[in-house]
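dumping this here so i dont lose it
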C-alpha cells in the first residue's frame, strides 16, 4: 500500500470551519470560497471530525499556552522596618511627576518639568518632600544633599532601579571614598563609611510599597487640587513643605494611656519630639479663584489638599466594608478623631470616649466624647478610633505575614515627649 492510499483524518474545534469545508465553495463568499476550494483540492479524500477546544493540541500553537503567574507567600517585614534607630537612618526614595513649573512670576514665561522627591523613613513612616528641577543624577544629588543636611546621612537608602538613582549611587560612593582619608572617623560614625544603596529589581514596584503609598498620597490629591495652575519653583517648594507637614501630622496612636491625655503620637514626634503646628491663616475656600492673590492661591491649594487627604486618611483608620462586622474598638477611654470639615490644616479634633450608648441590637451606635474644651455626642460613623499598640502593629505591617512591629521606639519617644 502506498502512502497516497492511507486514510487521512483531520480535526478542528470550529464547527463553522467544518461546515465550510463540507460544503461546496460556491456557497460561500470569495475569501472563504478560495480557501475551502484549496483545502478540498489538496485533501480530496480527507475525513473531517470535530474536537473540543480543551482537547485540541493545536490550540497551544494558535493561541499560546496558558500561563500561570508565579506566586509566593508574603515575607515578613525587613529588619530595618521594625528596629529602633535614628529617624531617616533607613529611608525609601521615589520620584513623582513631572510637574510643570515656571522660572519666575509673570506672563508668557516658558515652563520646565520638575519632579517631587519623596523620602520615607522606613521605621517611623515620616515623610520628607523636596523639589528636583530635573531627572538626572546630578539633579538628584542636589536634592539628597539638602535632605541629609536636615535629617542626617542615611545608613541605608532604598529605591527602584531608575537610571538617575543608579548614577547617583556611583557618585555618592566616589564622594565618600574621597572624604575618607580626611574624615574617616566622622564618616564612620555618621554612615558606616558610606550610604548603602539597595535597588529593588526592575518591574517590582510592590517591593517599595511603603514609599509608593507616599507617592500615591501626595500625587493623587495634588494633581487634582492644582488643576491648570502653573507655580514657580519657589512656590511649589513652599507648597511641598506644607503638604509634608500635613502628612507628618497624622495621628498614629495614643501617646500615653492616660484617659485625660488627648495627645496622639504622630510621625513628627520622631524627628521634632512634638506635634507639628502651622501658622493661623484665614480660609480661602469660599473665595473665587479669580480674586485670589498668588499667596492666597497657594493657601487655597494647600487647604484643598488637606480636606481631601485628611478625609481619606480618617476613612482608612476605621474601615467598615458594608457595615458587616462588629467594631470592638469602640469602648470607654479610647482616643479617637472626630471627623470635621471645619478643622484647618494639620489640626485634628481629638477626643476620649467617656460613655457609649448601645442600641436595641446591642451594638454601639452613639458615643459621648470629651474634647479639650467640651463634651459632645456623636454617631460612631463620625469618629475614627486610633489603634492601640497591640493592634497598631498589625495595621502598619502591610506586605508582611504574622508581623509584630517592634514598638519600644514608640514608647521611648512618648516618654521623652512627656518630659
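and the seq i came up w/
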Amino acid at each position: 500500500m502506498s502512502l497516497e492510499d492511507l486514510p487521512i483524518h483531520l480535526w478542528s474545534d470550529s464547527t463553522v470551519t467544518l461546515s465550510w469545508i463540507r460544503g461546496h465553495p460556491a456557497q460561500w463568499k470569495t475569501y472563504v470560497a478560495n480557501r475551502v476550494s484549496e483545502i478540498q483540492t489538496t485533501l480530496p479524500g480527507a475525513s473531517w471530525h470535530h474536537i473540543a477546544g480543551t482537547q485540541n493540541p493545536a490550540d497551544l500553537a494558535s493561541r499560546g499556552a496558558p500561563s500561570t503567574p508565579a506566586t509566593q507567600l508574603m515575607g515578613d517585614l525587613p529588619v530595618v522596618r521594625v528596629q529602633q534607630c535614628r529617624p531617616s537612618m533607613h529611608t525609601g526614595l521615589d520620584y513623582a511627576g513631572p510637574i510643570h513649573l515656571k522660572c519666575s512670576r509673570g506672563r508668557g514665561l516658558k515652563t520646565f518639568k520638575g519632579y517631587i522627591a519623596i523620602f520615607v523613613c522606613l521605621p517611623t513612616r515620616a515623610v520628607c518632600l523636596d523639589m528636583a528641577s530635573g531627572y538626572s543624577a546630578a539633579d538628584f544629588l542636589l536634592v539628597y544633599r539638602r535632605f541629609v543636611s536636615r535629617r542626617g546621612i542615611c545608613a541605608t537608602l532604598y529605591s527602584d532601579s531608575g537610571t538617575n538613582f543608579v548614577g547617583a549611587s556611583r557618585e555618592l560612593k566616589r564622594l565618600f571614598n574621597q572624604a575618607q582619608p580626611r574624615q574617616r572617623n566622622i564618616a564612620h560614625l555618621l554612615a558606616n563609611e558610606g550610604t548603602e544603596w539597595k535597588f529593588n529589581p526592575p518591574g517590582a514596584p510592590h517591593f517599595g510599597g511603603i514609599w509608593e503609598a507616599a507617592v500615591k498620597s501626595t500625587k493623587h490629591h495634588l494633581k487634582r487640587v492644582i488643576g491648570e495652575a502653573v507655580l514657580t519653583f519657589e512656590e511649589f517648594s513652599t507648597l511641598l513643605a506644607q503638604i509634608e507637614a500635613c502628612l507628618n501630622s497624622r495621628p498614629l496612636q495614643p501617646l500615653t494611656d492616660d484617659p485625660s491625655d488627648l495627645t496622639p503620637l504622630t510621625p513628627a514626634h520622631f524627628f521634632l519630639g512634638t506635634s507639628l503646628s502651622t501658622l493661623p491663616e484665614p480660609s480661602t475656600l469660599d473665595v473665587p479663584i479669580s480674586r485670589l492673590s498668588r499667596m492666597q492661591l497657594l493657601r487655597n491649594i494647600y487647604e484643598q489638599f488637606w480636606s481631601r487627604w485628611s478625609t481619606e486618611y480618617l476613612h482608612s483608620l476605621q474601615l467598615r466594608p458594608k457595615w458587616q462586622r462588629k467594631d470592638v474598638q469602640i469602648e470607654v477611654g479610647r482616643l479617637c478623631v472626630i471627623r470635621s470639615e471645619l478643622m484647618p490644616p494639620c489640626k485634628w479634633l481629638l477626643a476620649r470616649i467617656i460613655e457609649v450608648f448601645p442600641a436595641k441590637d446591642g451594638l454601639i451606635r452613639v458615643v459621648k466624647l470629651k474634647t479639650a474644651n467640651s463634651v459632645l455626642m456623636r454617631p460612631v460613623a463620625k469618629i475614627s478610633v486610633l489603634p492601640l499598640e497591640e493592634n497598631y502593629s498589625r495595621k502598619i505591617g502591610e506586605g508582611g505575614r504574622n508581623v509584630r512591629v517592634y514598638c519600644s521606639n514608640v514608647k521611648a519617644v512618648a516618654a521623652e515627649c512627656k518630659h
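Confidence is low (pLDDT under 50) at residues 182-193, 390-410.
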